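User: Hi! I'm working on a homework problem where we have to compare a predicted structure to a textbook description. Could you give me the structure for the chain below?
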Amino acid sequence: MQQRRLGSQGLEVSQLGLGCMSMSEFYGPRDDAESVATLHRALDLGVTFFDTANAYGPYLNEGLVGRALGDRRDRVVLATKFGIHRSPAGEWLGVKGSPDYVRECCDASLLRLGTDHIDLYYQHRVDTNVPIEDTVGAMAKLVKQGKVRYLGLSEAAPATIRRAHAVHPITALQSEYSLWTRDPEGEVLATVRELGIGFVAYSPLGRGFLTGRFASPADLTGDDARNRHPRFQEGNFGRNLELVERVRAMAAEKGITPGQLALAWVLAKGEDVVPIPGTKRRVFLEENVAAAAVRLDTAEVARLDAAVPRGAAAGDRYPDMSLVNR
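Assistant: Happy to help. Predicted structure tokens:
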């Protein structure tokens, strides 16, 4: 597994990371034993970059990741997030970015992860009621205290990124990016590249849609959060399936899976881009990791760009888009 540098402060990670969210919530039932085995297998395969958040579970995912990787801590880069405020019962309470809340969340995450430092600490969503300078100022104090090594933002708009970066260097911006979510292309990617900030692509497989595993909305279990996402709903699902068929046809030409082609496309978008496909099963992890060996030439990237152009996906990314691009 090759390494990529995130930002200009010295952080290096595996070119593919592992998103851990689905191990604890959202995409069907939990299987902690298989999730732990998946985390261990990822490390065996050269994945060193693991992504979690206090909101996943809520709070359960950090504990799972911490227990699984605790005796391997010196081999991994742990990223976690704060800012999406949830009750222990799972109720969504909004977005918080106050300095006191930043400190409180960091200390709690350190305990759950079983570590004395977080390698990359993100603000999960921007709190528009708190100046970004105040939030990042509190995050910067965590760096000075040795509790955090590098700072990140998630789903932030270019103007917010600039203001944050003026307070303390931002190492990475994490936002959704895939063949069917090409929103960052343009001003967002241009901004982070101008400032020397790395880009972490979450949901690079379109929440699994781009793998070709879903033929209809009925393929999702009743408790799967994707049932509430517009792109997975009737009316949009069929139109988006047409996009997947284009990816499937091109993948067949190369003798790889649609998911591997989708990941290879993200990897080809720049050495400063690191996708973090999520899974809780070893079989899908191994398929995803194999994408790191897929090479796309300029013509192949251009073909994919044309096959799934920016804005081609039907439906919004979330049921409520008000918390992104702030």
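For your comparison, note the following. The longest helix spans residues 237-254. The two ends are 34 Å apart (CA to CA). Good luck with the assignment!
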